[in-house]
Queue: 2 jobs
Job 1
Amino acid sequence: MLTAQEDSTLTGVGSGTPMGDLLRRYWYPIAAAEQLEDKPIKAVTLLGESLVLYRDGGGRLGLVAEACAHRRVSLVYGIPENEGIRCAYHGWRYDADGKCIEQPAEDDSSLSQNPVSIQAYRVEELGGLIFAYLGPNPAPLLPRYNLLSWEDAVWEANGSVIPCNWLQVMENMFDPIHVEWLHGRFFAHVLAQRSEEQAETFLARHAPTHMKKIAFDRFEHGVIQRSLSKSEEEPNWKTGDALFFPTTMLLGPSKVSGSAIFIVPIDDTHTWFLLHMANRVDVQLPKQERCSYFDVPGANDDGTLKTGTAHGQDYMVAVTPGEITPRNKEHLGRSDAGIVLYRQLLQDQMALVGDGGEPINVRRNEKENQCIELPKVGETSMGNGHMEVLFC
């Protein structure tokens, strides 16, 4: 159980907060590139900052503060130019670095005598997604996870804005026991309310498997999560799923396919859940630049939650505790070992950054960043960094 103050420290992502300062050391996806095809300007909120993402006429990406420096009008309604973005109100134009490079109604000397700029952040494209970095310079390398780097793969992504704090979405990733119940027994219960035939078909194909044990292994970039139901040769145990700190999960990718989950803190009470999938194909393909994207709703039109899908079930357990889970009212058990580990890891890395250090999984070596794979069997710690929980 956390105190209310500890809970607040772990959940607040604003600039100048301990967690906000830690999370700003990393890159986050903020859009699929295809979302700028029909309209090259998109409102983005990341870590509590209201921003505008755009692609100008020269094909360059920019990410700047939403408000124009002149009269604070939103640049979401701006005009993309051959270079930069122009405010709709009085035509002030900004380049990708946030520098105001044109003020049509002002004297020509005003730009040099009274330079004006707005906040701008780094953006890069990879795997059909657009990533942003909001932290201090020098910026680290954008991690080139293998499924984002494959040039012969077909990419697809879907996402959902969840109206709750990022941490409760992330903690669900460290709770393998919920798969048996939420996505197994509860799923069958929901289907049975529709028809017994649906429930029987589901149970025949996806019978809930009781987990015999779960384990968590620390490695230099995060944590490997393992779960065992039958044999230690199962991929879920032998390979596991990898958290690349702080909020990226690689789900056991093979050489031909893989999935990554990105948990993106929008602000203190909203989170973007993004699933990116890559599949290599046998036919010759040109280099892929595009990732098809669609939004996945978590609620029906009448406000009820979509509990008839695995995503809807995860959405339900994220939002029903409230916008920010009151962790001072929890009663954790031994099956929550992964959640306890993750909270401690966050606290350790916050303290490290507070002391002027660099947290884990900040990439600065070009060679090591070429194509990041899941750690191979035996490469993660089975010593002090290994923790197992046995069940009956």
Job 2
Amino acid sequence: MPSLNAEVERRLRNEGASLVGFADVSGLPASLTGGSPRAVCIAVQLDPTIVREIANGPTPRYFAEYNRINALLAQLSDRAATILAGAGYRANPVQSTTEQFNPVTLSMPVQHKTVATRAGLGWIGKSALLITKEYGPAVRLGSVLTDADLQTGTPMDASRCGTCRQCVDRCPARAIVGDNWQMGMARESIYQAPACRAMAVRLSNEAGFGATICGICIHACPWTQRYLAREGAEPGEATVDETE
């Protein structure tokens, strides 16, 4: 009989998840997790043919892909919660960014990317995005908090970006400081959210849709370029710095 981990991952991947991880979140404040000691993290990759179009900012196709994946993540999170509840456990999907986003702090109560690093799916890049080896930052994330007895992954607690500055140099808002992330580091130490948000609003408006998305740093990342090359999309010239 497959383990609960294996059953959750199998069913989520069958329904469109690209990566599935399991995290120990017992160290996060109970006020945020509801006392749940575990979490399921779900990642869905962005279409590489769309990612290759956003070197200079968002496009209508990228906006549509952003919304498509958000809807898929909501479905996958609900599916994971149903599986866990069926096994006798509490399970609460963390709502999407658009539903629980705090406009003052420009953040979520429970960060999907924090759950992802604790599940070992990736690290936080200089862009403050989750970087995965499989897709770079070209993913969107969902999470489900639970008390299920899940086996958890090995957390990633430090950056693997090394000396790379591709996202720093490409950011039109100059919002990326350029320092490497370590677990527990304040977001403001590596990334200026207000500057990023203002530029994302401007670029979205210029592209003809009302949103707050950009994508330039996603495209710039060498790990994304590796993903695009693997999938046959046109890669840039950036190379991955694996010296650290």
